Amino acid sequence: MPLLNCQFLKSYREQRLAHLVLSFMTMGYVWQRGETQPEEVLPRNLALPLVEVSRNLGLPPILVHSDLVLTNWTPRDPERPLEIGNLDLIVSFPGGESLRGFILVTVLVEKAAVPGIKALVEAVNAISQRSQNALLQALQRLRLSIQEITRTLGQMHDYVDPDIFYAVIRIFLSGWKDNPAMPVGLIYEGVSTEPLEYSGGSAAQSTVLHAFDEFLGICHSKESADFLHRMREYMPPSHKDFIEEIQSSPSLRDHILSSENSQLLTAYNQCVEALVDLRSYHIAVVTKYLITAAAKAKGRRPNPLPGPSQALEERGTGGTVVLSFLKSVRDKTLEAILHQRD
């Protein structure tokens, strides 16, 4: 493979597409022989352009959520609605229709969040303008968006086979930080003589729930919060800036408590309850696709699927011990419920 010259990349879109393609090739190269024999050195003709494009974009040199999902779809017919039957992937891994379903359902989850992100901006403006009615309407739109995200996530069951996800797809999303299969990281040839460590792709790299959490004033445990903050380094800088902008806005919780408006308090609590329901549903999905699939893979006789990835059994692709993390995040969300002052 020739050493690619990044100076030919003119636009932001071209650079994002280059990051998508190079990071897919990197994951395919590192994990081509499975979890037990990962490559320890990324050749310079992949490492150098990937690192250069990553620096230009402010992203790490590994596949991230914004590659796998946000950059990796195209409509078959731009005139028709963005539904799963009208979408194609740009770059693929092994995994066939299950991989297509996994990525495109996640694209649709992000789409379902769009009205919620817009409502969140409207709500921040309503607080600064002290418009209780506009704030109430924005909170109601936010709740509807969170409920739509949960419904959309349910499409995973229709399009993704848990055995294929666990045994085939998951390894290609795994990184080289907090991963027992690659305990020291990966050498990027021509970039660094020491191995570098980066987390794999994770839903925690999506801006959506970070923004919702900051807006609703949800406080996570130190361990969870540390991981979530680390995942912000895996987002496009403009996404990270957006979350920090929400974080620095006047507190919604303080505004609602000081307003003594019971309608606002109810609307806020309904948003929090919808977020708890989404997180509980996500736990159920992860249990099916990770925990149950791992148990099945362990007990399976020789079969056409590759062996289960032992080192990753209870970990998310971002490197967390996944169920305890998700349950902690869900439980801390529930604690945010506000109670009427006497």
Automatic annotation (TrEMBL):
It is an enzyme of class 1 (oxidoreductase). InterPro entries: Indolamine_dOase, Trp/Indoleamine_2_3_dOase-like. One of its GO terms (biological process) is 'de novo' NAD+ biosynthetic process from L-tryptophan. One of its GO terms (cellular component) is cytoplasm. It catalyses: L-tryptophan + O2 = N-formyl-L-kynurenine. SUPFAM superfamilies: Indolic compounds 2,3-dioxygenase-like. GO terms for molecular function: heme binding; indoleamine 2,3-dioxygenase activity; L-tryptophan 2,3-dioxygenase activity; metal ion binding. It comes from the Eukaryota. Heme b binds at H282. Its EC number is 1.13.11.-. Pfam families: IDO (PF01231). Keywords: Dioxygenase, Heme, Immunity, Iron, Metal-binding, Oxidoreductase, Tryptophan catabolism. Belongs to the indoleamine 2,3-dioxygenase family. Catalyzes the first and rate limiting step of the catabolism of tryptophan along the kynurenine pathway. Involved in immune regulation. This is Indoleamine 2,3-dioxygenase 2. It comes from Zalophus californianus. The gene is IDO2.
